[in-house]
Amino acid sequence: MAQAKILTDNELLTVLLACESTRWPERNRLMVLLSFKAGLRAQEIARLRRWHIQTPGGDIDTHIHLDKTVIKGGLKSKGASRPRTVPISDELRQTIIDYYRVAPGSYQDPLVRSERADITAVDHGAEIPEPMLSRSIVRLFQQLFRRAGLIGCRSHSGRRTFGTKTARAITRAGGSLKDVQEMLGHSNLATTQRYIEGDEEAKMKVVNLI
C-alpha cells in the first residue's frame, strides 16, 4: 500500500475549510490540527483526556503529554512507540480554546467526546462521557478529505505531513532530526526517516551551498 499523501499548506487549508460545513466544526478542526500540527495518530486522539493538555489549575499546557495510556500499544507498549511530549503551537492552542467554548468539560473527560453525548462510563466512581472511537475518527478524516477533493489521503496523512515539515524546519530552529524522532515518539531513527518525504527543490539548492 502506498504511503499516505503529505499535504501542502493550501491543501491543509481546504481540509480546515471543509470542517466549517460539518455539524461539529470546532471539534473537527481540533482533530485535524492534532494530527497535522502535533503528529498524533487517530487512536491517540481518541485516547486523549483533557488532563493530557491542561495544567492541574485548568490552563492549557505548553505541551501535549502523551503517556502510556495514550500512545500506540497503550500500557503494554514495548515497541516502536514511546511516551512523548509535543509542544502546542499558537494555532493549536487557539483551536483548543475555541473548542472548549462549545464543549466545556472536566479535567478527566475525554478531549474528544463520542457524538452520542448521553453515553457515559464510570471511572473511579465518577461518570464521564465516552470518547470518540478511533475508527470513527479515521472515518471522519476520510469524509473531510473527500469534501476537500483530495486523493490519496488517509488519517495518517497528518502525522506524515507533521514529520516531513518538522524535519525540514528543525535545523532552522536550532534542532536536529533527533528532536523530530522524539516528537513522533519513535524509538528508532530509521522509523522517523521513513515518514519523511524528500524535496527535490531542496536538493538542488543544497548542492550550491556546499
UniProtKB/TrEMBL annotation:
Keywords: DNA integration, DNA recombination
Domain Tyr recombinase, residue spans: 2-208
Signal peptide: none
Gene Ontology BP term (one): DNA recombination
Pfam families in UniProt: Phage_integrase
InterPro entries: DNA_brk_join_enz, Integrase-like_cat_sf, Integrase_catalytic, Tyrosine_recombinase_XerCD
GO molecular function, one term: DNA binding
Gene3D superfamilies recorded: Intergrase catalytic core
Family annotation (CDD domains): DNA_BRE_C
Protein name: Tyr recombinase domain-containing protein
Species this protein is from: Magnetospirillum molischianum DSM 120
